[in-house]
Every structure is written in C-alpha cells, then in structure tokens.
Write a structure and sequence with these properties.
Residues 288-461 form the ELMO domain. This protein has 31 helices and nine strands. The chain is an alpha+beta fold. The longest helix has 28 residues, at 500-527.
C-alpha cells in the first residue's frame, strides 16, 4: 500500500551531524533524532543555495532570524560581521524575512553602513546585495533615501570599476532609483554622467555592459521631454552607438537575452525621439518649412529653375511651380505644404525627403526625373510615396510606443549609422520605386504596391541583417516576382478544399484533431514552464516555475533561484493549487496584476502575454508568459482543464495544419502500396560535413 501523500522521504542534515534518510510528515519527526528543544521554532529548508523552505515556517522564526541578523551585522568582529552580511544577503530574498528585517529599521541600518564608507570588498558587496534584495520586494519606497546615500552609490561606479560585484549592484541600485522615483531621477542625473558610464561598456564583462546600458536606458526613459533630445545629443557626442557596435554587438561572444532586451529598449527609445516630428503638422504659413519644399524642387530641377527664375511673370512662375510639384509627386500641386498636415507622419516625412535629396542626390534626381518624364500613367509619385512610406516605417518600428518588458527584438543594422532611420527610409524609397516598376503599377494600384513593399521590408527584417548594406542586398533578392512565388507557395501549403465532401470529412475528423491538440497542451503543462517575475529592475531577475501534476489534478508552483535547465521536479516546488479550486482564467487587462498602477499596465505587449488563475473568494495566481507561444499553450491548457473551448490563435493554426495534413493523407491514392508499421532507420552520420555551405 503506498504511503500517504503527506509522507515524504528526505535526507535531513543537522549542523555537525551526519545526514539521515527519513520518512517524515512534519518537523516534529526530527525531534527524537537530534533532541531538539522548542521544535515549533524549526522548519525544513533546502540545503542548496536557494534556502527555500520545504515546510511552512512560522512568522516568529522569521522575526527571530531577522533580530539575530540585525544584531550580528553590527558586530565588532569583522569576520562575524562578514558572515552575518553574507547570511543577510541570502535570507533577504524571502519576502516574509524581508518584512521582519525592514520592521526593525534594517534598511536604515544598511544605508548608514554604506554612507559611513568604512566597508570595502566582500563586506560592501554583501551589504549592497542585501539592500538590493530587500528593496526588490517593494515594501519600502525609494523616495526615502538621502542625497549622501545616492552620492556614495554613484561614487562606487567610478571607484570600484575593477570590483565586478560592487559595480554590478551599484548600477542596479541606480537604475532602480531612476525608474521608481522622479525625485531620485533628478538627483542621480546630477551625480552620474554618460562619460562616467561609457568606460564600463568598453570592458569584456557582458553583465556589467548590460547593467550600464540599463542605467542609460532608465535615464533616457525618465528624462523630461525637453531634456531627452539633449541627452541623445550627448550620447551621440560620446559615440555610444559605435562603442556598443564594437564592444557589444560585434564582440566575439553571443548576446544573452537580457543584453538583447536592453539593446531593444535603447533602439525603441532612440526611435521614439522621432515622435515629436511625426506628430507635428506642417504650418503652410511657415516660411522656413516651405523653404524645405522649395529646396526639394531646386535639387530635382536645378538647371531649369535657375534658367526660369531670372525672367517671366509671377503667373508664369506659379504655373511652373505647380508643374514641378506635380512632377515631384505631391497630391496638392498648388500648395504641397497641405500634404504634410496629416499626422502621423507629419513633418517627419518631409525631413526624410530632404535627407534623401541631400545625402543620396543622384538616386533622388533619378527617381524624380524618371517618373516625371513618363506619359503612360505608370509614374510613381515620389511625394505621396515618401509620406505613406514614412508612416509605414513608423508603424513597423512602433515609433511612439513604450518598450515592451519582454521583447528582445533589436536590429543590429540600426546601430551601424548615426542616422539609421533616415538611411532606412532611403533604402526603402528606392525599393518602392523598383517594386512599382516591376508591378507596372498605376495610381490606382498605390495601396497594392505599399502592401508588397511592406511584405518585402518585413521579410528582410526577420533575417536580422547585420548592416544596412546587408539589408539592401536582402531586399534585392525579394523582388516582386519572388514575393509572388512565396505567396503562391504559402497558398499551396495552406490549401483549403471547399467542396462539400471535403467539408463533411473535415467536420468528421475535427473532434479527434481537437482532442489531440488538447492532449498536447496538457502534456506541455505537465512539463511546466519557467516564468519571470517582472519588476521595475530586470537585472536581478526572479523566476518561478509552474507545472501540472501527471494526473491533471494539481498545479505545482514555486520560486527558483535562476532559470532552470530542463524540467523542475514536482517535489522542489513548494506551493500547490488543486485544479478543482480554480474558478476562472482571465487574460489581458482583466488580470488583477494588469490593473495595478505602473508601467506594465501601459504596455501593450505585456498585456497580450498576461493571464491569471482566480480561485477561492479572492485568491489569484498571476502569470506573464515568456512569449506568445507559451501564452497560447497555457491559456489553452487551463481552459481544457476547466472543460472550456481552446480559443487561441495557436489552436486555430494547429487545427488548420493538422486538418489539412490529415485530409491530404486520407485522399492519397494508396492502392497496392504497403505502408510500413515501423519508421525507416535513421542513416548513419557522414564521415565529414565538407558538403555543408554556410549561407551567411
């Protein structure tokens, strides 16, 4: 007969004694073994570095530990103090202990120790680690810290450049201060300059580089609108882009997820500087703005303009201007300034056109003259195209949107040029003109051409070209003919037979396909997933793991020290939630953690990955999936457990794919063909791989 569920076999270790393998149901089982007095003051704890508790630990034990450590870190013995700070850094990860230690005014004690400036090396490192862990729980407001403390932390960024652990934690604290308090942002901005941060990017430690870019991003994000452009100018002067390109992107090592996220955030914040111009309408009465249009005309029709400017009546000149503006492809030939009153793209489109005309003059003149001389209605209107293309590029790059908390989608090519957006536009406007000619388009086909161009750009971007030249060459291979071939191939792969017998066959086999998808989802829940605990400071990531029991009755979950390699065993996850107790599964803005105040609420991408399990009267388990795929798997699986329909995009795609495959298999002519019961053997590996060609 199997033992009761609450009886477990564990090896229990007491300091100074040999571990013992025991079957236990509670701590009291250990009492006769080691003669423990006051056994109600003990709890079972993992012996690994995580220090997580297996059995529930009474609050009074946390209070006791907090009191002891509060006294020990004030010890006059340096060795005892160091050991105490090491323990404090470890215990502070537990929220209950943190609350008790903070209640003893522990944060003030740690800040005083930092401000005193008497601790160095490991002692200072453990002090800062404990501080970071305690503050991460969000119990204490960041607004409570003094200027002296901020100055001290800022000084460590320069003073301890060679001490990785101190530098790391100092940068993490500065980032949290900036992100969590407007007042502290101003104080930190006064203490830390970009010039002081740049040298840390030129080192070889990727973690320090990540923390450094995170601080720069935080300062950038929290800067007032009028200061943001000023900060961007300083970053340009300090050659931040080229330093990141050389020492981070093109360094001889892989870029980890956190670094990729920070580069993505920097990319988004840089492009968001364009939002002001994107949302600024042109003032038709503003002479300086109208002069830009005159400059476009002058560059395109230079010789002819000079010839005609010297003579002729005002009426003749107006007529000539109208003709030239028509050749430039503006919608309003009389007053082209009116074309730039729509936002987006506003004045940003005109900026792009002027940049193209000045920096790629030959290509600009060729495109304008080539199209203005056509009489067959196949001319590509440069002005209208540039305005719509700028709007499209802003949508693709999500100009004006906050960076996502989970996205790592940075593009190396945007770090290869100081005017990357303008260069991006210049490549794409030439692509648009080329595609227009390949399609033999007329003005009625304008929207069709724009759709093809968007597809070409998106397909080229997904390959993550390392430079703008590489992006250009990718586009060369994505001609209109190639796009048609790709579309044809995709249509054939997703062919949907609409005849009545096929539809009846689909209806018949759909339930078994849905059952197959359901089993796959539940199997994935049994394997489990590691979720990130998102907070305002991503560097010291906290992870937790959730998985379904093999009998589909219980959800096991618990905190982790770091992202796991492979599955996490059920018995190492401390908490349980019976499936029978689940009342509902909610997603997006209906989730409790998305209704709270903070940056996450405003972030569209995080909203799309959020879901919550509601249980009992007010219980909730909040999730933010690592990506869209995991979000679909978990919401489908949880709905399946509750007997509800699986409605995710992933289920629809899987259903379409599996139905299509099954129907094609059933329609195969297999008469007199014997299908083997066993799969064919896997061939042996070749003796060498000389035949492999690296396309990159």
């Amino acid at each position: 007969m199997p033992p009761p569920a609450d009886i477990v076999k564990v090896a229990i270790e007491w300091p100074g004694a040999f571990p013992k393998l025991m079957e236990i149901d509670q701590v009291s089982a250990c009492v006769p073994v080691w003669s423990l007095a006051n056994h109600d003051q003990f709890a079972l704890q993992h012996a690994d570095s995580s220090n997580f508790y297996i059995t529930e630990k009474p609050i009074k034990i946390f209070a006791q530990n907090a009191q002891q450590l509060h006294e020990r870190i004030q010890s006059s013995s340096m060795d005892a103090k160091l050991e105490a700070l090491k323990d404090l850094a470890n215990y502070s990860r537990d929220v209950t202990f943190a609350q008790e230690f903070i209640n003893l005014d522990g944060i003030s004690l740690l800040t005083q120790m930092v401000e005193s400036g008497t601790d160095f090396g490991d002692m200072l490192s453990f002090t800062l680690t404990a501080f970071v862990e305690l503050m991460d729980h969000g119990i204490v407001s960041w607004d409570t810290f003094s200027v002296a403390f901020i100055k001290k932390i800022a000084s460590y960024v320069n003073k301890f450049a060679s001490d990785i652990s101190i530098l790391q934690r100092s940068l993490a604290i500065l980032e949290s201060m900036v992100l969590n308090s407007h007042d502290l942002y101003q104080k930190v901005a006064q203490e830390i300059t970009i010039g002081q941060l740049i040298p840390h990017l030129q080192g070889t430690d990727q973690e320090i580089q990540t923390y450094t870019i995170a601080v720069i991003n935080a300062l950038f994000l929290k800067a007032p609108d009028d200061k943001r452009q000023e900060m961007a100018n300083i970053l340009a002067q300090k050659q931040l882009r080229s330093i990141i390109l050389t020492h981070v992107i093109r360094a001889q090592r892989a870029i980890n997820n956190e670094m990729a996220h920070q580069l993505y955030v920097l990319q988004v914040l840089t492009f968001n500087l364009l939002e002001d111009r994107m949302m600024t309408k042109m003032d038709p009465q503003d002479q300086a703005q109208r002069d830009i249009i005159f400059e476009l005309r002058r560059i395109a029709f230079d010789a002819e303009s000079e010839l005609n400017n010297s003579s002729g009546s005002m009426e003749k000149r107006k007529s000539m201007y109208t003709r030239d503006y028509k050749k430039l492809g503006f919608i309003n030939h009389v007053n082209p300034a009116m074309d730039f009153t729509q936002t987006p793209p506003g004045m940003l489109a005109l900026d792009n056109m002027l940049y193209f005309a000045k920096h790629h003059q030959d290509a600009y003149i060729r495109i304008v003259l080539e199209n203005s001389s056509r009489e067959d209605k196949h001319e590509c209107p440069f002005g209208r195209s540039s305005i719509e293309l700028t709007k499209m590029l802003c949508e693709i790059l999500k100009v004006g949107e906050l960076p996502s908390e989970t996205c790592n989608d940075f593009h190396p090519m945007f770090f290869t040029h100081d005017r990357s957006f303008e260069e991006f536009f210049c490549i794409c406007i030439q692509l648009l003109n080329k595609t227009w000619k390949e399609m033999r388009a007329t003005s009625e086909d304008f929207n069709k051409v724009m759709q093809v161009v968007k597809e070409q750009i998106m397909r080229a971007l997904t390959t993550k070209p390392s430079s703008l030249d590489q992006f250009k060459s990718k586009l060369q291979n994505l001609s209109y003919t190639e796009i048609l071939k790709i579309r044809q191939s995709e249509r054939m792969n997703q062919e949907d037979f609409q005849s009545r017998p096929i539809l009846e066959l689909k209806e018949k086999i759909q339930p078994e396909i849905l059952e197959l998808i359901k089993q796959q989802r539940l199997n994935r829940l049994v394997e489990g997933t590691c979720f990130r605990k998102l907070n305002s400071r991503r560097r010291q990531d906290k992870f937790w793991y959730c998985r379904l029991s093999p009998n589909h009755k219980v959800l096991h979950y618990g905190d982790l020290e770091e992202s796991p390699q492979g599955e996490v065993p059920h018995d190492s996850l401390q908490d349980k939630l019976p499936v029978a107790d689940i009342k509902a599964v909610v997603t997006g803005k209906d989730c409790p953690h998305m209704k709270e105040k903070g940056a996450l609420k405003q972030n569209k991408e995080v909203l799309e990955l959020a879901f919550s399990i509601l249980y009992d009267s007010s219980g909730q388990l909040n999730f933010i999936a690592p990506d869209k795929h995991e979000y679909c798997v978990w919401t489908d699986g949880l709905n399946a457990l509750l007997g509800k329909d699986m409605l995710s995009d992933l289920t629809r795609n899987d259903l379409d794919t599996l139905l299509s495959m099954e129907i094609k298999l059933r329609l195969l002519d297999l008469e007199n063909i014997q299908i083997p019961d066993a799969p064919p053997p896997i061939p042996k590996e070749p003796s060498n791989y000389d035949f492999v060609y690296d396309c990159n």
